[in-house]
Design brief:
The structure holds two protein chains of two kinds.
Chain A: H1 6-12, E1 15-18, E2 24-28, E3 32-34, H2 40-49, E4 59-62, H3 80-96, E5 99-101, H4 111-117, E6 126-129, E7 143-146, H5 149-158, E8 160-164, E9 167-174, H6 183-194, E10 202-207, H7 209-213, H8 216-225, E11 233-235, H9 240-246, H10 255-266, E12 278-283, E13 290-292, E14 300-302, H11 314-323, E15 338-341, H12 349-359, E16 369-372, H13 377-385, H14 388-394, E17 398-399, E18 420-423, E19 438-441, H15 444-453, H16 459-467
Parallel strand pairs in A: 3-4, 4-5, 6-7, 9-10, 9-12, 10-11, 15-16, 15-18, 16-17, 18-19
Antiparallel strand pairs in A: 1-2, 2-8, 13-14
Chain B: E1 6-14, H1 21-24, H2 38-41, H3 44-47, E2 48-49, E3 52-53, E4 69-72, H4 84-91, E5 96-99, H5 104-113, E6 116-119, H6 122-132, E7 139-143, E8 148-151, E9 158-160, H7 165-173, H8 177-182, H9 185-198
Parallel strand pairs in B: 1-4, 4-5, 5-6
Antiparallel strand pairs in B: 1-7, 2-3, 7-8, 8-9
The complex binds iron/sulfur cluster.
Chain lengths: 468, 203
Amino acid sequence: MPGRTLYDKLVDAHVVRRIDDDGLVLLYVDRTVLNEYTSPQAFAGLRAAGRRVWNPSAALMVVDHVNPTAARRTREMPDVDAARQVDYFAENARDFGIEYFDIMDPRQGIEHVVAPEQGLVMPGMVIAAGDSHTTAYGAFGALGYGIGTSDIEHYLATSTVRYRRLKTMRINVTGHLPLGVTSKDIVMEIIRRIGADGATGYAVEFAGPAVRDMSVEGRIVMSIMIVEAGARGVVVAPDQKVLDYLEGRPRAPKGEMWDRAARAWLQLRSDPDARFDREMTVDAGEVAPVVTWGTSPDQAIAVTGQVPDPENNAAAVRALSYMGLQAGTPIQSVPIDFAFIGSCTNSRIEDLREAAKVFRGRHVATGVRAIVVPGSTQVRVQAEIEGIAQILIDAGVEWRQSGCSMCLAMNDDILAPGQRSASSTNRNFEGRQGPGARTHLMSPAMVAAAAVTGRITDVRALIKEGAQ
Amino acid sequence: MTPFHCVTGTAAPMMTPNVDTDVIMPKMFLKGIDRSGLGEGVFNLLRFNAGRPNPDFVLNRDGYRDASFLVVGPNFGCGSSREHAVWGLQQLGIRALIGTTFAGIFNDNCANNGLLTISLDAATCGALADAVSDPASNRLTVDLEQQTIRIEGGDGRSVPFGIEAARKEAFLTGRDAIGSTLAFADDIRAFEARHRAENPWMF
Ligand code: SF4
């Protein structure tokens, strides 16, 4: 029998039973995290059918999408619709007996930041949740994937989801990350190469020396963002770094149980002779900071490049017109109005440290508004302890409370039509940061560079300048 | 979910690649706690200009206002997991989407609600889009039982399509997935006990 991939092992270990001969199975799901905007109709469905939650202790509810991120946090939701969603969310937590981090909880934050932070994500788990970026948990060797509201309801009622096995793709990242190049740039480069549907139908395994060298947080960035190439599941073989990250977290096993778990976790990897349906290799050493120019995450170029010629491609023509850009313009000359550092992709402590290195001793350019929204309330506290918050404030950056914020602009953090942002988020779709808003995706350090110069800038130039 | 057998209706072409769920259902319409009002939300920023129908948008053009089908470009439904996109399309009267590839979560959401997604090869899909771009040949009959799409006007061509047996069955019966899964409750309990014994730290 040929070897199995880590993805296949995780699926195999969770199959309750086969449903058909085409690969449809009933898959046991170990955990979920619920948010206030994709869950209400699932709970309404349970209520209408008189069903209970199969295993309430496997779920966590956290408010993150609709809440304001103003510096002074209060329980009030200024928006009536948001208030109704949050009230209903709290009511569902109470009635179905699920743990709930409300907006004032010191553990509150973006679900994909909070779940690992609490030690809820463990290698070997399957985690399905109502948010496409649930793939984040692949960084721990857990199979995480996004589901819609009907499947949330299905999961809550049965602890299972009907699941069709994906094809597998291994992405090997070799070489070393050059100075100023981050895991965000690597994953954006991969998406640029394979396209916005390049991984549709696949589960991706990230492997190779550059991935092993990467911190767990760096792997989370890649695991989240590869969703923008259509990946529906991500795994990275867990190693000592994952163990070090998890040990001592509130929900991580303790004592003898920890030793047993740790031994099992380190066994989780693809067999050496496992075959993948597709393989690709990226040399990290050849990657430059990447910036998007269009309205799809694969419409991207190296920061040293020029806005490409759309060559009669209707989608590219439309994207350029929406973005207000001309073919041939050096992307570095494009001025910005807004700089946003936040989102589940890039709002963890390491992201803020990288941004602070650029902001230290510099100031946000005239005419630019810059905001930093930490991924969780704990990240916020940590950044304050480390002095990062003060560096940001001294640089003229607004230091805010945690939430999804301008990643999807469901709260009051929203751009005006035509405003252009440098953004550490994951989606540059039309209207994502507000109707008519123009988003350029990049790494947090690159956002900081754009904030201080007032235009899209190669952060490597500032790093050199800083080193002199 | 709504069952799907055989539906005849107008098809509108929408061949832009990577139409994401933010475009299908903009964020302003995500703040409900039920499924109401999403028919207004669907494609809102494309359908309306300052509250008025945008004459350039296909579903506002003569012959396409009552569309039951969309013929779409690759990777339709990418991005956010929001099922509101599917509910909105259904509230607008869309019964099936015909394209090449659909994004994973979106495709599952469609299946869970009875919105049929049909994948064709690029050439066949392109030819169908060309046909329905002419209002004289934009009526289709989608027959799930027979697995065919027939062009009612024009040359009356019929295009076959593939679909997995279990998916077809689910669409035809409109079954309640949770109800059928709960019939396996004993299997789930047995699995859970074994899984807990092997991985006690997960519980
Ligand atoms: S930060 Fe953005 S991508 Fe992440 S969960 Fe929130 S809205 Fe989704």
